[in-house]
Amino acid sequence: MSYAYYPGCSLHATAREYDESTRAVFENLGIGLREIEDWNCCGATALPSTSYLFSLVVPSRNLALAEEAGEDVAVACNSCFVTLRRAKSVYEENPLWRAKIQEAMGAIGRSFTARVQIRHVLDIVVNDVGLDRIAETVRRPLQGLKVVPYYGCQIARPKNEFAHPELPTEMDRLLEVLGAEVLRYDHKTKCCGGALMTTKPEAVLELEKELLGEAYLRGAEAMVVSCPLCQFNLDAYQDKVNKRFQTNYHIPVIYFTQLLGVAQGIAPKKLGLKRNLVPLRGLLHKYYGEVI
Amino acid sequence: MAEALPVVQEGSLDPDFKRLIETLSGAQNLNACIQCGTCSGSCSFSERMAHTPRRLLEMVRAGMREEVLNSDTYWYCTSCYYCTVRCPRGINLTEVMYALKHLAISVNKDKNAAFYDCFGSVLQSYGRLYENGLLLKLALKTDPLMLVAYGPIGVKMFLKGKLNILPSRVRALSEIRRLYEKVGEMEEKI
Predict the structure, then answer these.
(1) Which of B145, B162, B169, B174 to mutate to test the interface with A (most CBs of A within 10 A)?
(2) A95 and A175 part of one domain
(3) Minimal CA–CA distance to A196: which of B49, B15, B32, B108?
(4) Which of A4, A154, A157, A167 is most exposed, with the fewest beta carbons within 10 Å of its own?
(5) Of A43, A104, A191, the CB nearest to B44
(6) Helices (H), A107-200
(7) Where is the Cysteine-rich domain (chain A) (predicted)?
(8) Which of B182, B76, B170, B183 is CA-nearest to residue B129?
(9) Which of A120, A149, A175 is the last residue of a domain?
(10) Within-domain flag for A189
(11) How many folded domains does chain A comprise?
């Protein structure tokens, strides 16, 4: 099993621990991840507002590169995931725009034929590797760890790819296999506000308060996420939420790949466990002792 | 908070506006909308908007171009796709919001429009996102005090090794620029 890995911009910057832990966990599972040579930004949800066609061809270049490499694409960022899928589905469903995408790609001497599959790393772990195989790799069961799974909005939308668009269960089941106690979380696919934190901070801080608030009320020791934007908004802005709403949240926000790595007994450094802003020490010291 | 529906002067409607938005949002049929309000009920930010998504769509159909482009509805859209997933008529409202932002950016120069503008120009400069560059551009264009507000988070991220001081570039940047030129030429014909 091997994939063309599309890390996207966040995983090389603000979400470095997601990149590190994804690579470490995949290595441990014996799945190949070859980073796409000279990939570019997918354009995220910002580029479609500047030009419809440009926002389709920019992600298409990455898909063309993966096709040249002859492997399906593995993506970790929900926003990259939805953006790459958007380009592929317009290509598949709309002949007019397909011709335009082909013409533009031709100008740089590349071809995109949409035969490549775009897979989220959560999908690969749960459905390709399978939970039975994951269970065999668990060295340190996360017994007693109370968590809420927060998928974010873009992982299974707009179309049902591998998970239910409103009530997915993939991360729930994965975390249960790792031994964690998965708590009910009604906001599991509510939006975190994404890049709107830059332009409408007041509105987005209120969203973070709701998301953190439910995790707190359920008694979660951590929120488990699968998207760099969710992680950043909840982790980096938790202080601001506390200041703005006189709350006292102190909830670690951890990537599912980090927690999977912990259960598999992978060294903390390989999982970037010191990079989360709300420290993971209190949450994980029972698994690592003084190391973290 | 929702405002009253604006009163429209006779002769100020744009009969082609609906068709334009249908085209720019990927060839959709906005007549399919039955005004059920599922989109407004699903949106995280409806209560903050002057016009909810349901009403905005009706304003688009009515040809209220100016009122639509001056509204704040689409600046609240995060592309979470809740409305699109739930629409019983299969309308991709997220794409409609993209199309409206696209038109608004060409006439509007406020902070919302500037963000998307700056993102696009950072992408053309490096082929990848460069957070420092994006923030600096945006601050200089709109509100330099933004940099002060972001300072503490920037320092924390830097200490955790999660802030790139220098941009990461695509080696074949000429391909990105060529794509941009080519799309520009093609769009003139659309």
Answers:
(1) B162
(2) no
(3) B49
(4) A167
(5) A191
(6) 121-123, 131-137, 170-177, 196-199
(7) 3-85, 150-235
(8) B170
(9) A120
(10) yes
(11) 2
In which residue are the tokens 């760099």 written? A228
Given CB atoms, is B101 within the 8 Å cutoff of chain A? Answer: yes
Phi, psi values for residue B170, rounded to 5°: -75, 135
A101 Cβ under 8 Å from any chain B Cβ: no
The model's pTM is 0.96
A110, closest residue in chain B (CA to CA)? B175
- Under 8 Å between Cβ of A106 and B185: no
Range A217-253 burial, b when 16+ CB lie within 10 A, else e? eeebbbbbbbbbbbbbbbbbbbbbbeeeeeeebebbb
Provide the 8-state DSSP code for A263. H
Tell me, yes or no, whether A283 and A216 share the same domain: yes
Q: Are residues A94 and A222 in the same domain?
A: no
Q: Which residues of B touch A165 (CB under 8 A)?
A: 81, 85
Q: What is the ipTM of this complex?
A: 0.94
- pLDDT tens string, chain A, 292 residues long: the values are 899 999 999 999 999 999 999 999 999 999 999 999 999 999 999 999 999 999 999 999 999 999 999 999 999 999 999 999 999 999 999 999 999 999 999 999 999 999 999 999 999 999 999 999 999 999 999 999 999 999 999 999 998 779 999 999 999 999 999 999 999 999 999 999 999 999 999 999 999 999 999 999 999 999 999 999 999 999 999 999 999 999 999 999 999 999 999 999 999 999 999 999 999 999 998 888 766 6
Report domain extents, chain B. Answer: 17-107, 111-189
pLDDT of residue A291: 62
Last residue of a domain, one of A120, A152, A170: A120
Specify the pLDDT at position A109: 97
- Chain A nearest-CA residue for B25: A52
Tell me the CA end-to-end span of chain B in Å, nearest whole number.
Answer: 37
Mean of the per-residue pLDDT values for chain B?
92
Q: Chain A: nearest CA to B103, how far in angstroms?
A: 8
CB distance A81 to A44 below 8 Å: no
Asked, for residue A133, whether it belongs to a domain, the answer is no
Residue of A nearest to B98 (CA): A49
pLDDT at B93: 98
The pLDDT averaged over each successive group of 10 residues in chain B (190 residues) is: 74 93 93 98 96 97 95 96 97 97 86 90 94 91 88 93 93 96 88
In this structure, is residue A180 part of a structural domain? yes
Q: Does the beta carbon of A50 lie under 8 angstroms from any beta carbon of chain B?
A: yes
Phi, psi of A146 (to 5 degrees): -95, 120
All residues of chain B having their beta carbon less than 8 Å from the beta carbon of residue A198 are 115, 135, 138
Mutation target among A21, A50, A93, A202 for the B interface, most CBs of B within 10 A: A50
The pLDDT value recorded for residue A161 is: 79
* One domain, residues A33 and A167: no
- Using a CB-CB distance cutoff of 8 angstroms, which residues of chain A are in contact with residue B45? 200, 203
CATH of the domain at A214: 3.40.50.11810
Record: contact B76-A200, CB cut-off 8 A: yes
CATH-assigned architecture of domain B17-107: Orthogonal Bundle (1.10)
Q: How far is B15 from chain A (nearest CA, A)?
A: 22
